[in-house]
Amino acid sequence: MQTFFNIYSQQATAQAVIKDCVQQCQNAPAEANFAFIYATDALTADFPDLLKQCKDATGITHWVGTIGLGIIAPNQEWYDNPAASIMLAAFDETEFSMLPSIKKIDEISPTLQAIKRYQVNVALIHGDPFNPETQELIEQTQQQLDNGFIVGGLASSRDKHYQVSDSIDSGGISGVIFSEKINVISNLTQGCSPVGKKLSITKAQENVAFTIDNQLALNVLMQKMGIPDFHALKDQAAEVFIGICIPGSDSNDYTVRNLVGIDPEHSIFAINDYLHEGDEIVFCRRNDQTAIDDMQHMLDKLADRLKKLPIKGGIYVSCLGRGREQFGKNSEEVKMIHNTLGDFPLTGFFANGEIHHNKLYGYTGVLTLFI
What we know:
By secondary structure, the protein is of the alpha+beta class.
C-alpha cells in the first residue's frame, strides 16, 4: 500500500452518508489495517452506527477520530450537513499502540504502563473540551511519554463529544501512539502576526494584566500596537490578541488569547486565560490577511522540510474560528494545503482547541504529514 486511502461523503441524511461510506469501503485496499474517522456533529446520533458499519465493511479494528462542527477531506471542507471523512492506512502493528480514554490525571500512569512504548512517541490525541482537566491531561501524558510529541484537537459539537480509540467514548482524551519508524512531520500556523518583541508581565491577578515591563499594561498595549486612543482601540479590538509565550521558545511559539476587557481609568486589560508575574507575552494582530500569510508561511516551511519527499497522507486540525469564518466559504483554507504541497489523501476536522507538542492552542491550524 503505497499511499493512504480516502473515503468521504456529504449527503442530506445520516443514513445516506453511512450507505455511501460503506459502499466506498468495498474498494478499500486489502492491506489497510488502520483508519482515521471524522464526522460532522449533524451525524453525531448516527456516529456509532457509521463506525460499526465501516468496521464490518473493512475488517479494520483500529480506528481513531472524533466529531467536529466542520470536517476536512481533500480540497474540501464540510459543515452543517451530515458528512464523514475517513482515511485508511497500513501500518506495522508493532509500531503503534492504541491509547484508551483517560479521564483523570491518576489514570495516566497505569494506562501508559499497559501499552507499548517507543524510543520516540508521536501521539494523535482527541479530547473532550468540557473536561476541566483536559489541558493537564495533555501535558502530563506528554511528560510521561519518553520523547513524546502530541498532535490533535478537542471535539467540537452541539451534541455529544465522541472520541474514538477502537471504540467510542467521551469525557477524556484518547487516540493512538506511533513509533519513530512511522515517519511524520508536523507544524502549526497561529494565524497571527506578532507585533514587536517579547514583553514581561510584572504585575497580574488572575486574568488581568496591571503592568508590563513595570509600565501600565493598557498603555503598553496601545503603544506597541500603534493604537492612538480608546476609540481606535474599540474599533480594532477584534484584531488585537495576546500571545502567552511558551517558556524557552522564540517569539513565534505562543498560545493566542482574546482581549476580553479593558479599564481605561486604571490602564489595565483582561484576557481569557490566567496571567502570572514573570510570564512573557507578545502582542499579536489577527485578521483574514494575517491568517492567510501565516498559513502560507507554515506550508512553505513544511515544503522545505519535505525536500520533495512524497506525502503518503495527512491530518489537518484547524480552529473553528478559521475555515469558512476567515479564509472563505469555498474551502480555501484546505485548498491552500494542496496548492502548496500537492494532492495527497487528507482528513481532519475543525476543533474546539488544537494540540501541538504538549499545549492546547486556539486560532491555530496543525498539519501532520505521514512521509
